[in-house]
Specification:
- The chain has 188 residues and is an alpha+beta fold.
- Helices cover 27% and strands 27% of the residues.
- The protein is built from 4 helices and 8 strands, in the order E-E-H-H-E-E-E-H-E-H-E-E.
- Helix 1 (22-29) packs across helix 2 (45-61).
- It is globular.
- It starts with 6 loop residues before the first strand and ends with a strand.
Length: 188
């Protein structure tokens, strides 16, 4: 399977992550403020590089049914990488994932210097559209820690609804925070 084509929005370009994006991605994936509500702590340069390498390998291994794609989020005007996203239904394609093949998951992060401008909503909305239109996904899931109100508002603004609550005891990432799984059905 080939890598997805870039997705263009009014202010952004979302394209498959590449190894050379490591330095730009480290600017936010290594930032304690940016990773506060992610499933990992701030990444070291080596951890960040390994993460991107894994995402590139997963994208290249993706099949028609089982996929995992990392996305660089760039400003159209400058080409600066200001965030990254991920769309997947399997952590290790082409092996089956934990959700049905016609479902997908969504994750995203923006550098804190670009918060509050609607860019996260623009990027997440573009990835949801890509999942529905290009992958034929019927349901998109997104997880968010309960205290992350901006991300919860972003998902609700895109039409997602709360689907399942997880207590802090159920958190498997070590953050010990309660969280919600949100869902958006293609034809509710």
């Amino acid at each position: 399977m080939s890598l997805p084509a870039p997705v263009r929005t009014e202010r952004l370009v979302l394209r498959p992550l590449e190894i050379h994006d490591a330095a730009a991605v480290l600017q936010f994936r290594g930032d304690p403020m940016a990773t506060q509500y992610l499933s990992h702590e701030p990444l070291s340069p080596a951890e960040n590089f390994a993460r991107i390498l894994g995402l590139v390998d997963a994208a290249e291994s993706s099949s028609v049914d089982w996929f995992s794609f990392g996305w660089a989020i760039e400003l159209r005007e400058t080409g600066e990488v200001i965030g990254d996203g991920r769309t997947w239904n399997s952590a290790e394609p082409p092996a089956p994932g934990k959700i049905p093949a016609d479902c997908g998951s969504l994750g995203y992060i923006l550098h804190p210097g670009h918060h509050g401008r609607g860019l996260g909503r623009e990027a997440a909305g573009a990835l949801v559209s890509w999942l529905f239109e290009q992958r034929g996904t019927q349901t998109v899931f997104a997880g968010v820690y309960e205290p992350n109100l901006p991300s919860r508002r972003l998902l609700a603004g895109l039409g997602f609804r709360q689907d399942r609550h997880f207590t802090s005891v159920q958190d498997t990432t070590g953050k010990n925070l309660p969280s919600w799984r949100y869902r958006l059905d293609r034809n509710p």
